[in-house]
Amino acid sequence: MNPALGALEQLRSLSQVMLDAARDSDWQSLLDHEAQRRALVETLPADLACRLTAAAEDEARALIETCQRCDAGIRALVARRQCELRVVLRQPAAGMRGDPAPAAWQRPDAG
């Protein structure tokens, strides 16, 4: 296997493990695997696309898109957990910079 595709496959695998951890509310596992994934990303060459053959580009694109879907799922689950914690801590829903939180973050029974 092409080394670049191997690294992307590892990223996909770690992304899936992170999504599973978020689904299970295993936040420590999510953090641990995110650190592993971040370290792997830092080792990827900047010219990764140049190292792929034309035939491998479609596979690489599919792996990257899978990682992006996992990331979207993780973000949604983390946002939901943040809302739950705000309710417990009785804090108003707000974005990272104090901006109002998107409606999708707010619980239907809140407000």
Summarize the topology.
Elements: H1 3-23, H2 27-43, H3 54-89
Helix pairs in contact: 1-2, 1-3
Give a written overview of the molecule:
The protein has 111 residues and is mainly α. It has one domain: Methane Monooxygenase Hydroxylase, Chain G, domain 1 (Up-down Bundle). 67% of the residues lie in helices and 0% in strands. The protein contains 3 helices and no strands. It has helices at 3-23, 27-43, 54-89. Helix 1 packs antiparallel against helix 2 (27-43) and helix 1 (3-23) runs parallel beside helix 3 (54-89). The longest helix has 36 residues, at 54-89. It is elongated and about 55 Å long.
Q: Which stretches are poorly predicted, pLDDT < 50 over at least 5 residues?
A: none
- N/C terminus separation: 53 Å
> What share of residues is helical?
55-70%
Supply the CATH class: Mainly Alpha
Number of distinct helices: 3
The run of helices and strands is HHH
Q: Main beta sheet: strand number and arrangement? A: none
Strand runs, count: 0
* Radius of gyration from the alpha-carbon trace, in angstroms: 17 Å
The computed structural class is mainly alpha
Give structural attributes.
0% strand, 111 residues, Methane Monooxygenase Hydroxylase, Chain G, domain 1, mainly alpha
Could you give a short description of this structure?
The chain has 111 residues and is mainly alpha-helical. It has helices at residues 3-23, 27-43, 54-89.
